[in-house]
Amino acid sequence: MKIKPTEGELEILQVLWQDGPSSVREVNEKLNTNKNVGYTTTLKLLQIMNEKGLTDRDTSSRTHIYRAAIKESDTKNGLLSKFIEATFQGSAAQLVMEALGNNNTTQKELEDIKALIEKIENENS
Asked: Which end of the chain is more exposed for a tag (fewer CB within 10 A), N or C?
């Protein structure tokens, strides 16, 4: 991942990944379900993100439509790798143990984690 999105940019990317190509107004309305964000703030962030290559913009109509130019999985994997390296000396196991030890993990989540471990073990054998 070449460019690390800011927290605000990640919030916008989450909207675009979930809802697909959207106008500034649509993105702003979605952001405002969680916190108060001004329309001009959303517009400026989308313009900056477009310049950085985080979004693409369709200007063929009066209402510009933005879409994510980077893949969600690539972005999350890149951010997670940097976080694990910086915080847990590169140990994913330490991250998982810390996360499971400090949170109320549900039985369903534990079952999903066990299934994932089994899948990984089967792929590696």
From this structure: C
